Amino acid sequence: MIAEAGHFALILGLVIAFVQGTFPLFGASRNNYGLMALATSSAHAQFFAVSLSFLCLMYSFLISDFSVVNVALNSHTLKPLIYKITGVWGSHEGSMLLWVTILALFGIAVAIFGNNLPDTLKARVLAIQGLIGSAFIGFILLTSNPFNRLDPAPAQGNGLNPILQDPGLAFHPPFLYLGYVGFSVAFAFAVAALIEGRVDPPWARWVRPWTLAAWCSLTIGIALGSWWAYYELGWGGWWFWDPVENASFIPWLLGTALLHSAIVVEKRDALQSWTIFLAILTFSSALLGTFLVRSGILTSVHAFATDPERGIFILLLFVLITGGSLFLYAMRGPVLKGGGLFSPISREGALVLNNLLLTTSAAVVLLGTLYPLLLDAVGGGKVSVGPPFFNATFVPLMVPVLLCCTIAGMMTWKRADLHGVLQRLRVVALTAVIVTLVVTWLQGTKEILPAMALGVAAWLIIGSTVQIAERIGLFKISLMGSLKRASGMPRAAWGMAIAHGALGIFVIGVTASSAWKIEMIQLMKPGEIILVDDYKITFLGTANIKGPNYSGIQGQFEVNVGGDVITMLKPEKRRYQAERSETTEAAILTTLKGDLYGVLGEESGTGAWSTRFYFNPLVSWIWAGALLMAIGGLISLTDRRLRVGAPKLASKPISHAAK
Amino acid sequence: MGPKSRRLSFILMIMMLLGISVALVLAALKDNIVYFYSPTELLMKEPPMGQRLRVGGLVKQGSYLLENDGITSRFVITDKKSEVTATHKGVLPDLFREGQGVVGEGHFNKNKIFEAEKVLAKHDENYMPPEVAEALRKNGVWKGSKKP
Predict the structure, then answer these.
(1) Does A575 fall in a domain?
(2) Predicted local confidence at residue A642, as pLDDT
(3) More confident of the two residues A79 and A544
(4) What is the mean pLDDT of residues A43-51?
(5) Span B94-119, average pLDDT
(6) Do the Cβ atoms of B94 and A581 come within 8 Å?
(7) Are residues B123 and A297, on separate chains, in Cβ contact within 8 Å?
(8) Are B1 and A582 a contacting pair at CB < 8 A?
(9) Could you list the residue range(s) of the whole structural domain that residue B45 is in?
(10) pTM of the model
């Protein structure tokens, strides 16, 4: 009954979304206020219908209603409550329903907070969102209905893939989708502006916070995914340049570019046409990402159960939405007039460079991801493009981006004094060089690249610190005066400095964990001792364990540093009964200096176990950096200036992203 | 600087950037792509020793064994026509099973044994790597799966 209600609510949602997508568009072109007002009310109604449908599915999972196919395939009565809830989006059907629910959430958010928008713009933005919504709800109803019934209902469900039963992954999809779908707001604004033929700073004041909110969620989502891959897959790595990972990284790169170009539109009334183009590209890449993940046309370490038929449907939607908006862009783009002039050496100029480099690197990642498909399509054989390709192309493109970060933050708008800026950065540059030299001296000349990367990180971190210090006049005026200036400094400036500094922390984590990683694979008998970095590890033996829905074997390793036992590492091999599958649970000792990472392998038959230990230096700095970047974004989101244009608008996305 | 020369400098910057990235991509593609072979294809065109490549197929029933050092496993990858013996030093992925699809990445040593540095088996039991599915389909072994 509840499932039928959910199904019905979703059909209702489709009808409402279609109304939302058509009548207001018509009304806006005829200046019919009644039809335009329909956009707001239908956005409310659509959210109500779609989220009701989502809650119905969640309810079916909570009560383990196995007469619903989706529940029977992805749940089990023994599954812990939290994973019954997160199991809702553990399957393809459920995750697509989450996708449209979040879309409807953004729709209602625009409807509520957009009271100060011009009527026609608001109607058009909501209509575009309605069209996207009806396309995707239609997709769900036609190819992936989560409410299909199963008759007779099985007594027990299949359970959820055990490696998905994990807190890191449970919240990875919602954040990722908040990011992906959040870019639909920027997209809808871009398309609406094309229809209107007008982009002005208030438009950018709207687009920027939404893009920023989406970007923060996406950053957190990707970080969660990579953290999960790190501790759950048991390979000790955190990023594999895998197609599925790239699918989320490309929208992130483009979204980052969009974020920066929207600043130029807002502050300087320039780059309008480019910003619109980027908004279209960013959302399109999010759609492409959904397609790549859901169709399974690329071999991936993270492949999910997939179905080519659905992939083609999503590809069709992608072509329709991207093709349509690009066509509109080609028709209407030239109408948009560029505004403020600026010299190449200026903050605008630096942001243009940032945009060019970010979009180029996104294109390179896209090329590397799709190259196997392209080559196969022309009969060139089956290939895979792995980390070496991306390291050789992506990294060189990123170096100038990182170097520019610090310089751009100190430049003025319109025309900047590059010489003066560099002079102010003398100390920072000197520190970066010293860091490079010291690391080279400590590690030997073979490690020159990592040493230089650490120099770049110092450049970013100290550069951001100096930026803040200069603005608040630290040590130049009294301390009280500095504090007063600090509290008066725009939040956006704080956000920028924090996010750029966080990028430096991230670079340190990436560099150290890949350059100075220690990996040891060996056979150990109980009582045997190995040395990893400063840790003395003693294998005590194994024990049988039993969890709520699994049983398994736990290895017990005593970790000793300088004669003191500091902890026990207990890696596990679990066997989930319902799902009839095994997982490896790595045991990780996290310290600021690095992670000691242990995995239990197989028993060799002679009482010895194969074991694997890694020491990953500074690896947690990677996620700390990513998190801090998102925090920088959130701080920037609370900037008063962004609220003047749109009252209270910042509070909503934040409260969602923070949960 | 006038608007014309400014535009010119932007265009030059874009061209330079494109040039550099195209050069980077071409250089990287030349050295860093890894070809996929099925065991039958390997018989037909023998790749040079030491070249990095991927081999995929099914793990032959009864072929898995652990070598004396206790950490190197040895198994046979088959497409039901031809076979390749592979070794892997380390811990195999959880979903590695006899009779299931597998992709190994590594190189051939002088004894014509495929030394896989990476072994990919999937998160999902119903999933078959596309390359493996196609290689098997070519030999008429596997008919493609619809979801259960």
Answers:
(1) yes
(2) 59
(3) A544
(4) 97
(5) 85
(6) yes
(7) no
(8) no
(9) 35-138
(10) 0.89
